[in-house]
Here is the input.
Amino acid sequence: MYVWIWRRLPGGVPGKIVGYLVLLAGVLALLFFLVFPWAETALPFNDVTVDKPVSTSSPSPAPAPGSPTPGAPTPGATVP
Amino acid sequence: MTTTVAEASAPTAWSRDEIWRTMARGFGQLLITAGVVILLFVAYELWFTGYYTQQQQSTLNTQIEKQWTQNAAPDVSTVAPDKVKIGSGIAVLYIPRFGKHYHFVVVEGVGTDDLKKGPGHYPGTALPGQIGNFYVAGHRTTYLHPFNKIATLRRGDKIVLETKSMWFTYTIQDIPGTNIRWKEIVSPTDVAAAVYPVPDQSNPNKKPTLRLLTFSSCHPEYSASERYIIHAELTQSLPKTPGQYPAALSAPVGH
Here is the structure.
């Protein structure tokens, strides 16, 4: 796979090295700014709140401001 | 990467051995790549996410500073709990046990995006200094991990909150006259432990009389199967005057 890419990159050895670095940077940017942020929302280890058992693995929806009555933040919440 | 020389330009008929070798090598490289990507993901979660939070915190710091000095808005402790804008900074948190440079702006909201900015206040629960339960959740291992050392907190430790015109000092302790212990490990859905105005009661509508604070973070560390809970009670309210700080802080840093 890597050899296959190497052969197809133009510009002799220096050009190939530069080409490889550019490809690598592109892949890293893709991972860090698109794939990883997406992947972490699907994984549970960032859940830190105690919340109603509606969604434990997906991002817990913040209650809309104004919806909870002051003094009774979780109307109808049941504890299992 | 091997140092293969360019193949002959003429189309070559591959022998069966060559095909197998190429496929096995490609598969091996794929597995190694997958391993590297997973390691990169771990590095991303543990360290790279912190840069984002750092940026957000410094923005929030500037905003809250501006709000305190230029804005006519009242102190957050006098505002109705549900009147705070999601995503905005509400108070600055100091925990002496975590070091004298430790401070975070507490954000309103506990949605994924809010918690990326810093420790988040559960909307609708009491605000700093108010009667009820000021409940804050924070990351333990990622996004600058504000509650990384939550397990080092001890009974009697102070938690200080700075608002526009007040310093509120909470003390970690079993809450007198209740069954609320200073530390708990609960299931992620045990809302009574953290969200109720009087924690650990069966009745969510029980009228609060005490000024409490609750922290939660994931537990065990690097997992999320349970929640680590800390309870504290307000023990000192000090109006802000220049040069005077609550006893728990020698002098605040940062912002």
